[in-house]
Design brief:
Blueprint: E1 26-31, E2 38-41, E3 44-48, E4 58-59, E5 68-74, E6 77-83, E7 88-94, E8 100-108, E9 115-120, E10 125-129, E11 135-139, E12 144-146, E13 158-165, E14 168-173, E15 176-181, E16 191-194, E17 196-199, E18 202-205, E19 207-216, H1 222-236
Antiparallel strand pairs: 1-19, 2-3, 3-4, 4-7, 5-6, 6-19, 7-16, 8-13, 8-19, 9-10, 9-16, 10-11, 11-12, 13-14, 14-15, 17-18
């Protein structure tokens, strides 16, 4: 009897492998494992190219504020190293009118105060790791919109994910729920920066490494969350528990 490839469990050559661009509304995707997207001089990164198709690159023109490449890894792959005094801005702000979903592959150093992963303009929300190593969604100079309840492990490769909209917020660590609420976090301002939240004299720098950063300008379903989470799991060798 002649068997077809599909009956043996193989995928045809025409079948595509999932990538984050397969899900609609990917606004930004920066990938430290893809060296072709990184512009640096002696390891100092001035530009980190967006792979979403929107050409929304992360840039930093001031040498003293540039993170580094080629000095740290996550899961054996290159990571961009933020030393607690670096940050990068997007060339275009990302709208949050329909909410947002963020994935961040990170490894933290010791966090002594709130450290922003992704942030926006003055008074905006930030996705941050707090001094207890928990994931928070904070509106600058106001009460914490969502405070984490599960700490991440310092020095451990981790997939952070968060969804925030007018209907509320939820966060996950490697797919496991870290916290959620149904409070409107006043999320109307845009995202445009990684590595720090800056407002007046307050600076909340991230100290650690970043691998992939993905931002969708809408709320992903659980099924979509698991598609991206499992993609990152296979790529970076980090566990992911389906939501």
């Amino acid at each position: 009897m002649l068997l077809k490839l599909g009956q043996l469990g193989f995928r045809s050559s025409a079948s595509s492998v999932f990538t984050p661009t397969d899900i609609a509304n990917l606004a930004l995707w920066i990938d430290a494992a893809d060296s072709s997207t990184i512009t640096d001089m002696a390891g100092a990164v001035s530009q980190w190219d967006d792979k979403s198709g929107n050409n929304n690159n992360a840039i930093q023109g001031t040498a003293s504020l540039q993170p580094t490449t080629g000095t740290a890894t996550i899961g054996g792959k290159n990571a961009i190293d933020f030393d607690g005094s670096n940050y990068m801005d997007f060339t275009s702000a990302i709208s949050r009118l329909n909410g947002y979903t963020v994935f961040s592959v990170i490894k933290t150093n010791d966090i002594t105060s709130s450290a922003a992963l992704v942030s926006g303009n003055v008074g905006s929300l930030r996705l941050a790791v707090d001094s207890s190593e928990q994931i928070d969604i904070v509106r600058q100079s106001q009460a914490v919109a969502l405070s984490g309840s599960v700490p991440i492990t310092i020095g451990s490769d981790t997939i952070i994910s968060a969804r925030t909209s007018g209907a509320g917020s939820n966060t996950q660590i490697n797919g496991v729920a870290a916290n959620s609420n149904t409070t409107n976090p006043a999320y109307s301002q845009d995202l445009y920066r990684i590595g720090v939240q800056k407002e007046a004299s307050e600076l909340f720098f991230f100290d650690g490494q970043m691998g992939d950063i993905l931002i969708y300008d809408r709320i992903l379903t659980d099924t979509e969350m698991n598609q991206v989470g499992n993609y990152l799991k296979l790529k970076w060798g980090i566990s992911w528990t389906n939501i």
